[in-house]
Amino acid sequence: MQSARGILITTIASKGELQNWPELLPKLCGLLDSEDYNTCEGAFGALQKICEDSAEILDSDVLDRPLNIMIPKFLQFFKHSSPKIRSHAVACVNQFIISRTQALMLHIDSFIENLFALAGDEEPEVRKNVCRALVMLLEVRMDRLLPHMISIVEYMLQRTQDQDENVALEACEFWLTLAEQPICKEVLCRHLTKLIPVLVNGMKYSEIDIILLKGDVEEDEAIPDSEQDIRPRFHRSRTVAQQHEEDGIEDDDDDDDELDDDDTISDWNLRKCSAAALDVLANVFRDELLPHILPLLKELLFHPEWVVKESGILVLGAIAEGCMQGMIPYLPELIPHLIQCLSDKKALVRSITCWTLSRYAHWVVSQPPDTYLKPLMTELLKRILDSNKRVQEAACSAFATLEEEACTELVPYLAYILDTLVFAFSKYQHKNLLILYDAIGTLADSVGHHLNKPEYIQMLMPPLIQKWNMLKDEDKDLFPLLECLSSVATALQSGFLPYCEPVYQRCVNLVQKTLAQAMLHNAQPDQYEAPDKDFMIVALDLLSGLAEGLGGNIEQLVARSNILTLMYQCMQDKMPEVRQSSFALLGDLTKACFQHVKPCIADFMPILGTNLNPEFISVCNNATWAIGEISIQMGIEMQPYIPMVLHQLVEIINRPNTPKTLLENTGTQKLIHTRCTSLRNIRDNEEKDSAFRGICTMISVNPSGVVQDFIFFCDAVASWISPKDDLRDMFCKILHGFKNQVGDENWRRFSDQFPLPLKERLAAYYGV
Known about the structure:
Layout: H1 2-16, H2 24-31, H3 37-53, H4 55-58, H5 67-76, H6 83-94, H7 102-105, H8 108-117, H9 124-140, H10 142-145, H11 149-160, H12 165-179, H13 184-188, H14 192-202, H15 207-212, H16 270-285, H17 290-301, H18 306-318, H19 324-327, H20 331-341, H21 347-359, H22 361-366, H23 373-384, H24 389-406, H25 414-427, H26 430-447, H27 454-470, H28 478-492, H29 497-523, H30 534-550, H31 555-559, H32 563-570, H33 576-592, H34 594-597, H35 601-610, H36 617-634, H37 642-654, H38 660-665, H39 672-679, H40 686-701, H41 710-718, H42 725-742, H43 744-751, H44 756-766
Helix pairs in contact: 1-3, 2-3, 3-6, 5-6, 6-9, 9-12, 11-12, 12-16, 14-16, 17-18, 18-21, 20-21, 21-24, 23-24, 24-26, 25-26, 25-27, 26-28, 27-28, 28-30, 29-30, 29-32, 30-33, 33-36, 35-36, 39-41, 40-42, 42-43
């Protein structure tokens, strides 16, 4: 009853806003002093909920800053005889740590002192709140914790082993947060001997984990997925140049490699937190961690109990990124052992092994293919057809990672791979089908045009088109299928022609329907729901894939549709991801059928100019690329539009920390130095080719402008592996022209500054 009253009070307070009930807070604070325990505890429960829901307004002038009174009051109750009230008091104050609330900062030393006094509290909820407070203080008031850091580390080591898992989990967060602090290495170096075994021990499945995961169920492939099995999925918009991974896309939203080995336990738990902590600490300490890990690994990986062995395989995966160099000598023995573990009788061992092997895929691919790649690929493909759904999922994800690393190394095995992936269509339940689309799309991205063979097309396309025909326009399963088809269309090129018309038309319809729904919602928001714009984004991206794959063959489809009108609307959408995808499509259509784009250039260019804002990096990147493609097609006719974009482009170039992908797409650069140093690190591709043609044209118009930075031009020219013949001729002409202009003696003195590899390369390729 008391709890219900508390919830009612806080709900009314949050809905009606605290300023409309000014007597509430003074009344609740007054009730804290009641001698009746139930009254005091009830008031504290209500105050805790208010602090959680309304922290911001409590720290504002609107309510005359009540925290100046409330926080000292809460601190008094840290020593209360009731554990429940002590817990409420700490929880209330904790709400104001991250925001560095002034009222708390004034009492920070008293707060920390009181926390230390509660460190050994017998009540788990109090210990949990103390740990939570210390983790947050580590983030915002490290200066106040530093003098006590040795004691805090020792305390957190104990609490990470607390009998209460909620306390242990809260304490384990400390290591994750500490790893982000510059002092981490200095603070922890003396404690690794104790800490690493504690984290490793926390990585074992608990009994409750195994029950929640149905770990005793080995075969479940015939059991349909429930709706809660399927996590919401969000489409990531197309970024131009993402096919050139080495070119340096600096995009943080693609983190498929995270410690996500048991994602059906939706809650963050001690196992996941321990593994994540070990992962980040491996990235801090690198190979220095191995003396503390390797003795444990030896025991774990060959342990007869499957739960212990499984945790060892997780440990091996967790340290992969940070300790890769130091692990290399052990991998020739470990990788075959892990490949054997893919056949373990326990499904949870097979699934974690898939994930761990994916973390070492880069090394596997660097070795002769018959040694590890072929056996790994063979076993992973078997696991893709496993009788356990968790193993199917882990194998599919691991295989997608292997595809990204191996690329064309997989071409000799394409028939075998496709045979397995296509068979999985008939085997998979709902959730894993979505992951299968990703594996097929990644395969297409990785092997490219090698997929364009009649026998492969005949295997792959019928099941994809069957799914395409089954799904309704409003079904969110369209997202991964459209993404998959986008990659497949780009890879198959002309091989996709027989399927392109219905696919193209449906994409145009999806864009049109979404725009129409958005217009209705904007006009009458109470009557019409806002559309899910992801449908429009994935459709635009598939249209881009079609344009890139089909090239000029898309011309008739564009001619018969209103896609350019729709694209004009999308380019002005409020949602950055919609603009990002529409600019990618504009660039691809410019390359494929410029005759249809050209009449719209006067409308498009001002919009492109306003989107050259590096704050929205992916939008800016795609807008820049589209401008470059339009410039190539327009030639001298581009001149009237240059003032709309030139100033912004020069600002992007001169901005510190501009990602390489954006610099690659920035067509007109003011400074040779900046341009050449960015382009030298990009592998040969069409964008690099057009950028260098721009440089050569600039030099021919103004040769004296390059003199000061000519060494950077020479270095950038030498970065080419195989430039086109006419571009090589341009380089020759400029290099020899410069040499003749300055004379042999000056050229010799100038070229003596070059590193030896640069000097040799220019002599061998260009005769200077």
